[in-house]
Amino acid sequence: MRENADVPKSVVARTFKVARASLYTTTDRQATKDKLLLAEILEVLAEFPSWGHRLIALFIGRHRHPVLRVMKKYGLSARRKRKHRKKAADTGNPPSGIPNRIGRRCDAWLPNLIWVGDFTEWKWHGIRIFLATVMDQCTRQIVGWAIGRHHTANLVLQALEDAKKRRSGITPHIFHSDQGTEYRSEAVREWLFNNDVLPSHSAKASPGDNPHKESFFGRFKSGIDFNNCSTYEDCLVLIHHGIFTYNTRRPHTALKMTPQRFYEARMRLIRENGLQNPRKHPRNSV
Question: What predicted TM-score, i.e. pTM, was given to this entire model?
Answer without folding.
Answer: 0.69
